[in-house]
Each structure stands twice: as structure tokens, then as C-alpha cells.
Design brief:
Length: 106
């Protein structure tokens, strides 16, 4: 089920051409986002606690890839930036390049 605030998609493309996709899906969707008008990087605990989000799109893509992504590219769609927690996970996994497309098709 999709997030009430915004749908975010992360695609990892490995150096050998494999692709892994993750979304910011939720298990307990809400009619209105519990984060309201909070800015990015604020109130993400509500995504986990209220909406039961397993992880941001970037982390879900890493999980789909089983973290075997050294040198890969991540394309993030539907958000302005990678949050610090996700950036740390991407760096630890060896993602070499990140492209951010705030709107799909950018």
C-alpha cells in the first residue's frame, strides 16, 4: 500500500545490469499523513510507528538486492534528497552514484 504523503521509488542498477527496486510502501496506510507538513528528515518515526513502513525506498531496494551492490547506481524518484540514514546505508553498501529525480521523468 502506498504512503499518503508521497510515493518514492528507488532503483538500483548494478555494474552488471541487474536492477532492484524499492518503494516506501506501508502496511497500515492512513488517509492523511501523520507527519502532516513536517519537513523532510523530521518525524520519520511516525512512518514506522503509525504507518508501519518497513523502510524508505532506498533501504527496500538494498534489501531486494541482498546488499550486493558494490559500484552500483541508485536512482531516487519522488523525493528531493536521500535522508542521512539512507545515505549511510547506501555508502556502507558501496553505491557509487546517486541520481535524484524529484518528479518521475526528470
Amino acid at each position: 500500500m502506498t504512503c499518503a504523503k508521497q510515493v518514492v521509488k528507488a532503483t538500483i542498477i548494478t555494474t552488471d545490469g541487474r536492477t532492484f527496486v524499492g518503494f516506501n510502501d506501508v502496511a497500515n496506510p492512513q488517509a492523511v499523513c501523520p507527519r502532516g507538513d513536517m519537513p523532510s528528515n523530521v518525524g520519520y518515526h511516525l512512518c514506522r510507528d503509525v504507518c508501519q513502513q518497513a523502510g524508505h525506498a532506498e533501504v527496500m531496494a538494498l534489501r531486494a538486492a541482498d546488499f550486493d551492490v558494490e559500484g552500483a547506481t541508485l536512482i531516487l524518484e519522488g523525493h528531493k534528497a536521500v535522508c542521512p540514514t539512507c545515505m549511510a546505508a547506501l555508502n556502507a553498501a558501496g553505491i557509487a552514484r546517486i541520481e535524484v529525480k524529484e518528479k518521475p521523468g526528470d
